[in-house]
Design goal:
The protein is α/β, with parallel strands linked by helices and 540 residues long. The chain has 16 helices and 26 strands. Helix 3 packs across helix 4.
């Protein structure tokens, strides 16, 4: 029989950002919680009371518990309050990429079955263009402008939407298994899926993305959105957990980061590339930034952390999970013999396996797919909205299938190799397209590249070959032969691409990931350069 302590360890904690904000509003009501780059602020108490009034405005607009509301907006105080107001009402925000239009936008609105949408005025015409294809939408709120005529649904201006709204008396703090958001996947191989994220998952993601116990109430967390990425939900929650502030800007601006970090005293953020470009100064380590969350393979992170006196943490994560693999400690960087950087080790409370195509566990050192599960309910995704087939496929055999190829070493370190669908099998070698691209992207004339597997049309049973598709830096006349000759002495011989193609711009998803399916389907057209046909051999 299980002990009480064991059962308690398996119990989902009673957590949500709303619960944390209410607790902070009770203990430190006048402490600043939100500040934006225009220097507007909200205290913890103001955030709670204003979000509750937003809940009243949503209810007055006809939104009820369980409804999904699509939003198209930038990362602002209003986007935060709108999200919290919906969650307090028991409704679910579904933020979509502000580049969505036409088929992608219609798909998102119909998939969520949203009766109401909230958008910036500049995006209203996008919805109007697909109005005759929408099955559920009946009303649109234009948060930054007045109402204007629009076919097929009612339009309300932002001022009218919020005017006189009062906090409902029956609001309840969300339960940890309530869905706090749905976020769309990149859709690199097909229509985007909408991931259902419970509050318990978001709490687990936040507490796994950093060592939060090392933070204090003086932290300033940088939150540059965008609203449709999971980071826009992680960072306000992180700031609330440590009792600090989070700085909001409408959209990412690389040129603004350095000045905003200094002006607002940001202590938690990412690498500032403009600082690396500056000459070294004796006081480099005395700037306010202290804690770095970085992609575990960011090549600039280690040198940046050393120079500017920051502590660095890395994790493996995706929208569907909750930072289950993380560095052992701050700055705990591990490399394998091939120079790959580890994602980290498995976090307490999770199980992980590296498996073959039939979900059979593989020994340490052998690559396969990473699958995951958690000890506690609701700390990973609750499936894909209105897509039971995709949910069943991802969660088959009781484990979440990440689609990522990895291996684990004997010390428990996990190493990312590639997305399973992007891996290339050539002459007995499993080749990571991710690693091929890393070599190619290091060329100073390459802006972006994508490696895909191709076969000769007249050799259906042949091994796959590597095709690299390159977007050149503007004004750099790089040739295929020059690129290959540059790569040969720098990369393993079995990785050297056979085929090279150039494009003015690689096809991207709305979340800026390359649509490799498009490149694979393009095959070997007349404009593709062939290394073997050119007589260039790769020496042994």
């Amino acid at each position: 029989m299980r002990s009480d302590s064991t059962m308690e360890m398996a119990r989902t904690p009673d957590v949500s950002l709303i619960r944390t904000l209410v607790e902070r509003a009770g203990s430190t009501p006048d402490r600043t919680y939100v500040i934006d780059i225009e220097k507007r602020t909200l205290t913890y108490a103001e955030t709670v009371s204003t979000a509750q009034r937003w809940a009243g405005a949503w209810r007055r607009a006809g939104v009820t518990a369980g409804d999904h509301v699509v939003t198209m907006q930038y990362n602002t105080i209003e986007s935060l309050l709108g999200w919290l107001g919906l969650a307090w009402l028991g409704a679910v925000e579904a933020p979509v990429n502000t580049d969505y239009r036409s088929d992608l936008l219609a798909h998102a609105l119909n998939l969520t079955q949203a009766p109401v949408a909230l958008v910036l005025d500049r995006f209203l015409d996008r919805i109007a263009e697909v109005a005759d294809r929408l099955e559920h939408l009946r009303a649109v709120v234009v948060i930054d402008g007045p109402a204007r005529p629009c076919a097929r649904f009612e339009v309300t201006g932002g001022e009218a939407f919020l005017a006189g709204a009062e906090a409902p008396a029956d609001l309840e703090i969300p339960a940890p298994w309530d869905i706090m958001n749905v976020l769309f996947t990149s859709g690199t191989t097909g229509p985007s899926k909408a991931v259902r994220l419970p509050w318990a998952q978001m709490h687990a993601m936040v507490t796994g993305s950093f060592r939060v116990e090392d933070f204090g109430p003086d932290e300033v967390v940088y939150n540059a959105g965008p609203t449709y990425h999971v980071g826009a939900k992680v960072f306000p929650y992180l700031a609330a957990l440590c009792g600090g502030r989070h700085l909001m800007r409408p959209f990412i601006s690389r040129s603004a980061v350095a000045s905003e970090y200094r002006e607002f005293g940001v202590t938690v953020g990412g690498v500032v590339h403009d600082w690396l470009a500056e000459p070294e100064r004796p006081d480099d380590a005395r700037q306010p930034l202290k804690f770095l969350l970085t992609p575990y393979r960011d090549p600039a992170a280690e040198s940046f952390a050393r120079r500017f006196g920051c502590r660095r943490f890395g994790v493996f994560n995706m929208t569907e999970v909750s930072s289950p693999i993380q560095f052992r400690d701050w700055d705990a960087v591990v490399h394998d013999e091939a120079g790959r950087m580890s994602c980290g080790v498995l976090r307490e409370g999770y199980d992980a396996r590296i498996v073959d195509d039939n979900d059979q566990p593989l020994p340490d050192g052998q690559p396969g797919e990473l699958i995951l599960r958690a000890d506690r309910p609701w700390v990973m995704n609750a499936g894909y909205l209105n897509n039971p087939e995709a949910t069943a496929e991802a969660w088959r055999n009781g484990w979440f299938h990440t689609g990522d190829a990895m291996y684990r070493d004997t010390d428990g370190n996990y190493f990312f190799l590639d997305r399973i669908k992007d891996a290339i099998r050539r002459r007995g070698e499993n080749i990571s397209s991710f690693e091929v691209e890393a070599y190619v992207n290091a060329h100073p004339s390459v802006a972006l590249s994508a490696a895909v597997a191709v076969r000769k049309a007249d050799r259906a049973g042949a091994d796959e070959e590597i095709k690299i598709v390159v977007q050149r830096v503007a004004g750099h006349p790089l040739s295929a032969e020059d690129l290959i000759r540059w790569l040969i002495p720098r990369m393993p011989r079995f990785m050297v691409p056979r085929y090279v193609a150039f494009m003015d711009a690689l096809p991207l998803t709305p979340t800026q990931k390359v649509r490799k399916k498009v490149l694979r389907e393009a095959g070997l057209g007349p404009d593709v350069w062939d290394r073997e046909a050119a007589g260039i051999e790769v020496p042994r």
